[in-house]
């Protein structure tokens, strides 16, 4: 990760959407912003989606983040709720892509595990742990805001891994035959001797 970077974290929702900005300076993260979009008063669902898109663009244009970290929709029993949540996530990603931002998705359990060490932690536990790690500009009114910070923090932890870029390169390549993969792996080791434990 570069010495200076800003990660936009989003906890998507169609009633309340949480967002955060985490600035990384010399490897140390600090909170730039922590807030929510309150969408309940917008009766028309299509207008809510437009509000998410427009607001995400406004946040990006204000803070100029380098990367979007967003929580992936979880699988639940209510299919309609899942579809709506997926649309909220999709338009936020589309807004980021329209500004040429890269993005990462993180499963809820992965986020909770990263922040608290417990993949089944409650939202309140996640918020409490983040309060011990960061000084918030002001106390968030909704746990959706701290959930968004948790997503950004998870991204920071993952991308701070010195092997993260290598892992992304390997994962992003299309599947090949076993013979081809063996050749590619040996070429990778030859070209990156510093990554081999001696």
Please name the defining characteristics of this protein.
single chain, 198 residues, alpha/beta, Nucleotidyltransferase, domain 5, 2 domains, 5-stranded mixed beta sheet, 5 strands
Walkthrough of the structure:
The protein is an alpha/beta fold. It has two domains: 4-160, Ribonuclease H-like superfamily/Ribonuclease H (Nucleotidyltransferase, domain 5, 2-Layer Sandwich), CATH 3.30.420.10; 165-198, no CATH class. Helix content is 51%, strand content 20%. The chain is built from seven helices and five strands. A five-stranded mixed β-sheet has the order 3-2-1-4-5, sandwiched between helices. Strand 1 and strand 2 (16-25) form a beta hairpin. Helix 3 packs across helix 5 (143-160). The longest helix has 20 residues, at 79-98. Residues 164-182 have low confidence and may be disordered.
Secondary structure: elements and pairs:
Blueprint lengths: L3 E8 L4 E10 L2 E11 L6 H19 L3 E5 L7 H20 L3 E5 L1 H9 L6 H11 L9 H18 L3 H9 L5 H14 L7
Number of strands: 5
The figure for the number of domains is 2
Q: Write the CATH architecture name of the largest domain.
A: 2-Layer Sandwich
- What is the arithmetic mean of pLDDT? 84
Span between termini: 25 Å
The whole-angstrom Rg is: 18 Å
Class by helix and strand content? alpha/beta
Instruction: Estimate the strand proportion.
Output: 15-25%
Poorly predicted runs are 164-182
So what's the oligomer here?
single chain
Order of helices and strands: EEEHEHEHHHHH
Within the largest sheet, what's the order of strands?
Answer: 3-2-1-4-5
Shape: globular
Largest sheet: 5 strands, mixed
Helicity, as a percent range: 40-55%
Q: Tell me the CATH superfamily of the largest domain.
A: Ribonuclease H-like superfamily/Ribonuclease H
């Amino acid at each position: 990760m570069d010495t200076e970077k800003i990660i936009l974290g989003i906890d998507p929702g169609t009633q309340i959407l949480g967002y955060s900005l985490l600035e990384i300076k010399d490897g140390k993260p600090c909170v730039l912003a922590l807030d929510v979009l309150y969408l309940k008063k917008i009766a028309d669902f299509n207008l809510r989606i437009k509000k998410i898109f427009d607001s995400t663009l406004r946040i990006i244009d204000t803070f100029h983040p380098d990367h979007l970290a967003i929580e992936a929709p979880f699988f639940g029993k209510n299919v309609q709720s899942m579809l709506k949540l997926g649309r909220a996530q999709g338009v936020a990603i589309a807004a980021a892509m329209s500004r040429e931002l890269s993005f990462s998705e993180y499963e809820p359990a992965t986020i909770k595990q990263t922040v608290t060490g417990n993949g089944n932690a409650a939202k309140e536990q996640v918020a409490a742990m983040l309060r011990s790690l960061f000084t918030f500009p002001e106390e968030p009114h909704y746990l959706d805001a701290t959930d968004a910070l948790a997503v950004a923090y998870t991204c920071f932890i993952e991308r701070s891994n010195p092997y993260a870029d290598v892992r992304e390169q390997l994962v992003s390549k299309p599947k090949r035959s076993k013979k081809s993969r063996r050749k590619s792996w040996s070429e990778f080791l030859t070209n990156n001797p510093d990554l081999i434990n001696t």
